[in-house]
User: What shape does this take?
Amino acid sequence: MNYKRVIIVGIPGVGKTTVVDKVTNILYSKNKNTKYVIFGSIMMKEAEKIGLIDRDSMRHLPVTEQRKLQIAASSEISKIKTEILLVDTHLFIKTNEGYWPGLPFDVVNALSPTHIFLIIASPKEIILRRQNDTSRRRDNITKNGVIEELEIANNMLCSLSIITGAAIMQIHNSNNQSDKAALSIVSALGVI
Assistant: This one.
């Protein structure tokens, strides 16, 4: 069987989780054996063992502690056997120490992706989505800050392709176009 291990990434506010939910629904409707995991949720299970109570607090841990949580999560995810594995995660985490890779070498090697998709949107859309997201404690951001994050994401995406040999693609998620973005991913996976 031709297994696909798919990592879908994007900076906060691009609508990544909405797109991944739609990709998952399309794959289920095509009777594809699919498993969808949120990397941060797996990390949170590990973080609870050290007393953390929410995902946002992980960003404030020392980088060495974040790294331990990443490694534990990637180890758990690497054990999942399914036709299509979708991993929803971030390329980096913004910390007080700077940008820390969400998919450093040993983590991405454990995940062994066949495809990596970067969800993008315009800076204006990203800022509005972050401001309207009351479910998370987001840091304030400027347009220049969002542009910087998008540039870092693109650079990390290219680096990951070189390291893993995975196919990469940018998927634009404009407002009210998440169905189109999801179909682009499913098409690139050869499902439709």
Q: What stands out?
A: The longest strand covers residues 4-9.
